[in-house]
Amino acid sequence: MLWILKTIIHSLFRILFTLEYYGVENVPKKGAVVLAGNHPSYLDPLLISLPINRKIRFIAWDRLFKVPVLGFLLDFAGAFPVDITRRDAKAFEQAMAVLQQGDALGIFPEAGRSKGDGINEQVKTGAARFAINNVCPLVPITITGAHDAWPASRLMPLPRKITVKFHKPIVLDPAECDARKEDPEFAREITERWRDKVEQRLIPSIKVTDKLYQLFSRPAWPLRVFEIVPLGILLISLIAAVYTGYPKLPLILPVAVFYMYLLADIWFLPQGRIVKALRDLSTPILLFAWNGTLLKVVNYPTTGVDFLTLGLALGSMLIPFYYANYHDSQRFMRGMVLSYGLALTIALLYPAGYGLHAALFSFAVCYCLDRRPMHWYFTAGGVLVYAAIFGFFARPFTANLVYYVAIGLVVDLYMRLVKFTAHDGRSV
What we know:
Layout (H helix, E strand, L loop, with lengths): L1 H16 L2 E3 L10 E5 L6 H6 L6 E6 L8 H7 L3 E3 L6 H12 L3 E4 L18 H9 L3 E7 L1 H4 L13 E4 L7 H7 L3 H34 L7 H20 L4 H19 L5 H25 L8 H18 L2 H24 L5 H17 L4 H18 L7 H17 L11
Parallel strand pairs: 1-7, 2-5, 2-6, 3-4, 3-5
Antiparallel strand pairs: 6-7
Helix pairs in contact: 5-8, 9-11, 9-13, 10-11, 11-12, 11-13, 12-13, 12-14, 12-15, 13-14, 13-16, 14-15, 14-16
């Protein structure tokens, strides 16, 4: 039952936090071991235990057991409470018993959540003393991103990138443990070695997070290349409307609203993470909402599945877009928008059922195989579902589809040769 629950939670955390683990192999598969990590959030016991194929008994703050759902999960996972306001002899005896039985003990030396992004200035020596008294390895663990996902000031967590690093164990010398086990300075030395290990990864992560927040607070970037593409599409569709007699207002109105929003973002909107994310997603949202009208104007052969497959194509982009390296996602965004615009242009000369889908599918495949961006498997998964539906419904295939498939190859090559500028001013 515990394995099933861990699998479900791990899958959910992978989606919500793009959770990644490093160094899991550093945790001994059997025998007594102390797992000691920094403590940025309430999620930490779960974050540590999910990838470990052995039961971990955590020493947890007694008040956490009173939190709905979290208290149940802690109790179910085998955690036991400790009163951090006083010396809790019962909790100490329980922890010693766990190690004497050859099991894994989880503990947070900060004795409470981190007050900021880094480790608290004062930390307890309990983890070191447990390792010394039982002459067992102590595995330092660095958790990054969890403080940003669920700080003490927020009632519920938000989707943020979280990583957990299991460092190589601190292995103690049995003779030294026997000679110095009553020496408080020895426990302090081991605790400082633990801090050094954790901060080796934590401090660079804090600097990256600070830099990211500086990026979010910067002024909005002026119009980017892919945000100009809708103007070209509008021009093409207006020319086509002259021949088909389609009314021009449904074509112009979405684009007018889109550029009014962009101008408001550039001139008025206060910048932040959500505002910049909405700006980046506004172009594919426009194309998705505009798609039905555009296809009617150019007399593009459509079927009832067009809306679904285009949604899947955009979904395969938007899922990794939220989590991926910003520069990688910017390249993918530009490529999808350019592929869409070129496909719509070719549809005027060489119409083909599902040609638009073939162009987007082709580019997504080329991008995944050529670039392998961060979390590219999310994109690949969306593309596979998209390809399955496309392949099932796209019959009969026509020779004109070759032009649309070629769009993906051409755009991917173009993306590789040409350098663009992101809203932070760097080349992507």
